[in-house]
């Protein structure tokens, strides 16, 4: 009798987890960027990728620090997230013989830098100036194209330098969007577990537990997250880092992206540019939690936490019509081939019920 694979030496499963080697979070740590990078022993000159406002806030200081250290950095300023911007960064990196890229800014600059790094097979360092989403650590990049937003594999950062003094001064709505993005991990993990049970999708208990714990941290500490309080930036950044690490462990966006993200992407099509991504997935999490668990589910806890931090919980607060929310939820399954509670689609009646019961739209 042939022994089971787990006992007879036939086990062939393997994985390669890429995690940041240095994560520096706290007051005034922007000045530690060069030190954090030096410990990575990266070759070549740095290319700093930023956008106009983050350049004034932080990127110029990073460039000056690298210059003082003799690194002779180059700089690219991007105006909008696009695949053309990614290609421009790649071309600049090659022309300037850059050895690694440093993304300084919000989602736009960091996503473009990480996608360019992936194309170049070069190291990437993340220096966020706002805590608006978990992309500051994840190996995914998001770029809009027409009425569609593409989420693609990208180079995860070798180091993260998050200065809470700078992040605390960012527009508050960006921080509440980051909080809502983390809180939505509840439903992302539910969808992942469902896909595992019904479709055989690989599931990581460790990554799932880390993602859930991160969401629970935000819900439990929602009262501590207040505008202008630097400790709030500390809590949110650490949660975003944990969420990004969960995705790296899983080698998938599954720990932080389920039906609530499909709903958000569909809203981007139906009402482009209306609300922030994090706010949309926060509302989407209320809807999909109801679909998973009904009236007795934890969507009330999530809604209460979102309200305490000042994040939207209704269609009106997102700035979209009630009919648009219902239509987005009913058609969100069309966004990508990812099994979630939405399955092959739900009826508009079911979508309307979820939105009305959770208070996302008026009953």
Uncertain parts: none
Structure summary, number of beta strands: 8
CATH architecture descriptor text of the largest domain: Up-down Bundle
Instruction: Kindly state the percentage of residues in helix.
Output: 40-55%
How does the overall form come out from the CA principal axes? globular
**Widest beta sheet: strand line-up:** 1-8-5-4-2-3
**What's the domain count?**
2
* Beta strand %: 5-15%
Which sheet architecture does the biggest sheet show? 6 strands, parallel
Structural class by sheet pairing and helices: alpha/beta
CATH class of the largest domain: Mainly Alpha
CATH topology of the largest domain: Dehydroquinate synthase-like, alpha domain
- Can you count the helices? 15
Structure, briefly:
This protein has 363 residues and is an alpha/beta fold. It has 2 domains: 22-170, Rossmann fold (3-Layer(aba) Sandwich), CATH 3.40.50; 182-357, Dehydroquinate synthase-like - alpha domain (Dehydroquinate synthase-like, alpha domain, Up-down Bundle).
Question: What is the strand and helix layout of this fold?
Answer:
Blueprint: E1 22-26, H1 33-38, E2 45-50, H2 52-68, E3 74-77, H3 83-95, E4 98-105, H4 107-120, E5 123-128, E6 140-145, E7 148-153, E8 159-163, H5 164-168, H6 172-183, H7 185-199, H8 205-220, H9 230-250, H10 259-270, H11 277-293, H12 299-309, H13 315-318, H14 322-331, H15 348-357
Structure, described:
The protein has helices spanning 33-38, 52-68, 83-95, 107-120, 164-168, 172-183, 185-199, 205-220, 230-250, 259-270, 277-293, 299-309, 315-318, 322-331, 348-357; strands at residues 22-26, 45-50, 74-77, 98-105, 123-128, 140-145, 148-153, 159-163. It has 15 helices and eight strands. Strands 1-8-5-4-2-3 form a six-stranded parallel β-sheet. Strands 6-7 form a two-stranded antiparallel ribbon. It has two domains: 22-170, Rossmann fold (3-Layer(aba) Sandwich); 182-357, Dehydroquinate synthase-like - alpha domain (Dehydroquinate synthase-like, alpha domain), CATH 1.20.1090. The chain is globular and about 60 Å long. The model has no long low-confidence stretch (mean pLDDT 91). α6 runs parallel beside α11 and α7 runs antiparallel to α8. It starts with 21 loop residues before the first strand and ends in a 6-residue tail after the last helix. It is α/β, with parallel strands linked by helices. α2 links the parallel β2 and β3.
């Amino acid at each position: 009798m042939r022994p089971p694979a787990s006992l007879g030496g036939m086990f062939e499963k393997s994985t390669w987890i890429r995690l940041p080697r240095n994560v520096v979070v706290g007051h005034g740590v922007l000045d530690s960027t060069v030190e954090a990078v030096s410990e990575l022993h990266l070759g070549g000159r740095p290319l700093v990728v930023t956008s106009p406002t983050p350049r004034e806030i932080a990127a110029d200081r990073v460039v000056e620090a690298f210059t003082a250290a003799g690194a002779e950095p180059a700089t690219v300023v991007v105006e909008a997230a696009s695949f053309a911007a990614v290609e421009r960064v790649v071309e600049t990196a090659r022309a300037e013989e850059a050895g690694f890229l440093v993304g300084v800014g919000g989602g736009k600059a960091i996503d473009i830098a990480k996608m360019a790094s992936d194309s170049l097979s070069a190291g990437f360092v993340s220096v966020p100036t706002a805590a608006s989403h978990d992309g500051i650590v994840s190996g995914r990049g998001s770029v809009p194209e027409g009425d569609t937003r593409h989420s693609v594999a990208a180079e995860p950062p070798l180091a993260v330098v998050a200065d809470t003094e700078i992040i605390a001064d960012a527009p508050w709505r960006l921080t509440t969007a980051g909080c809502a993005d983390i809180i939505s991990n509840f439903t992302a993990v539910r969808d992942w577990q469902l896909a595992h049970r019904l479709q055989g999708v690989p599931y990581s208990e460790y990554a799932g537990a880390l993602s859930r714990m991160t969401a629970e941290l935000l819900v439990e500490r929602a009262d501590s997250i207040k505008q202008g309080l630097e400790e709030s930036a500390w809590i949110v950044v650490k949660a975003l880092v944990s969420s990004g690490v969960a995705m790296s462990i899983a080698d998938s966006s599954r720990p932080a992206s389920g039906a609530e993200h499909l709903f958000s992407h569909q809203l981007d099509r139906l009402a482009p540019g209306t609300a922030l991504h994090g706010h949309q997935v926060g509302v989407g999490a209320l809807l999909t939690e109801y679909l998973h668990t009904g009236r007795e589910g934890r969507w009330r806890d999530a809604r209460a936490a979102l309200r305490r931090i000042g994040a939207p919980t209704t269609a009106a607060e997102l700035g979209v019509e009630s009919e648009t929310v219902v239509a987005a939820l009913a058609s969100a399954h069309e966004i990508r081939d990812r099994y979630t509670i939405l399955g092959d689609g739900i009826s508009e009646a079911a979508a309307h019920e979820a939105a009305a019961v959770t208070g996302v739209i008026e009953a």
